Amino acid sequence: MITQVSLRALLSREGRRDPNPFYAELHRQGPVCVLADPAEKFDVVVHGYDAVHEALRDPALHVMTGDYPDRRGSSRWRAHPALRVLVNSIFFTEGPDHGRVRRLFGQAFSARRVAALEPAVERIVGRLLDRLAERGAGGAPVDLLAEFALPVPSDVVGELLGVPEEDRDWFPRRVRAFGAILDLGAGIWRYQQAADLAAEELTGYFADLVAKRRAEPRDDLVSVVAAAQDPHDDDPNDDDPNDDELVANLLTMYNGGFVTTTHLIGNGVRILLDDPAEKARVLADPVRAEGFVQEVLRYEPPTHFSIRWAAADTEVAGVAVPRDSRVLVLLGAANRDPRRFTDPDTFDPGRDEGQPLSFGAGVHYCLGAVLSKLEGRIALPMLLRRFPDLALAGDPGERTTLMLRGYESLPVTVS
After folding, report:
1. What is residue 53's predicted lDDT score, i.e. its pLDDT?
2. CATH number of 4-413
3. For 351-362, b where at least 16 C-beta lie within 10 A, e where not — what string?
4. What residues contact 288, with CB distance under 8 A and at least 6 apart?
5. Per-residue pLDDT reduced to its tens digit, 91-102
6. So where are the chain's domains?
7. Which range among 120-129, 176-185, 234-243, 287-296 shows the weakest confidence by mean pLDDT?
8. Phi and psi torsions of 310, nearest 5°
9. Most-buried pick from 208, 230, 317, 410 (CB within 10 A)?
């Protein structure tokens, strides 16, 4: 029997604050459910661990490319700069277009190149810990997100891409505005104008940076991808990315490269501060940080969902998914599947039950996953060793988003 459900509880204020009771109820209904109300904008919800893994690898289930609204007779998305950027990026392309961009950008995120970044990550973390000590001297409250969790990955991915250090403080406000339209719910459309303005500003920035690196190359990813494209070659059959693709992917790589890791660090610190025993274990054994980071990604992932549409009839976990169905894939629910994880609502860095699905699976598996884990594994133990008395200095507030899920601020004292 196929169960019908509604997303209203998940999209309520309470559901956004804590989606896990809703996920637990979904798991009681099976790994896949259907949505009966067309107003909910989805036809199928996939939430079981194995079913999510299957859906993300199903060639019939596509990311929301521009083809989908076009097929449904709506091309309004083309009027919005933010949506045009997303559709041109690796996150929302399929087939050969996706493959050639992934090959070009993937070279920067190989396991070998990421491992080689470890000394640079340690230097960046050390420098930011010095700044945190200065700003938190004498017990003054300091925002750990603004002063540490955000600039660590921003500086790392900035070094990797080639974004000058003096420019990096310009990004967070625009990145937040751009990212707000990625969440679930009709209310996100009120953020569209701000996202479009941010997209125009970010696009202009990266277009200028590509032009500078093309004229004066450096040892960074922007120079590499700029050199891979011949701006005078108009052959539509070659593999060179065009300017729109280059800029869209640099923009989304930079944004995605630090926002998710910011929330990985922020969510992880909050767990440590709420659990002194776990904090003591990570402090005593830095090797434990690797399991801790993986469990943070399972227990409090920065990304709770992905969206697909069925380009052809298919099925997931035995449930029929007709052509043109809109599919909500709940990564956060898959990470709490009791069929996969023992006592899934318990935080346990020692568990050995497989990878969480926080970075996705299949051809759209996150390019920056290895780098994000490395940053968390280095940053958290270094933070605790430097500030063993780290403590909350106030209420960090609620988390009400399911995409890019984390705190707006995290007030702490470091001494």
Report:
1. 98
2. 1.10.630.10
3. beeeebbbbbbe
4. 281, 282, 349
5. 999 999 899 889
6. 4-413
7. 234-243
8. -85, 110
9. 410
Q: Which residues pair with 307 in a beta bridge?
A: 328
| Lookup: tokens for 87 | 């559709």
Q: What is the DSSP string of 244-308?
A: HHHHHHHHHHHHHHHHHHHHHHHHHHHHHHH-HHHHHHHHH-TTHHHHHHHHHHHHS-SB--EEE
DSSP assignments along 301-362, one per residue: -SB--EEEEESS-EEETTEEE-TT-EEEE-HHHHTT-TTTSSSTTS--TT--S---STT--G
Q: Which two tokens stand for residue 84?
A: 């045009």
Q: Provide the 3-class DSSP secondary structure of residue 32.
A: strand
Kindly report the CA angle at 324 between 37 and 312, in degrees rounded to 5? 140
Spatial separation of the C-alpha atoms in residues 266 and 397, rounded to whole Å: 13
Predicted confidence at residue 272, as pLDDT, reads: 95
Q: Show the tokens assigned to 330.
A: 């709940």
Residue % of the chain over a pLDDT of 90 = 75
pLDDT of residue 1: 60
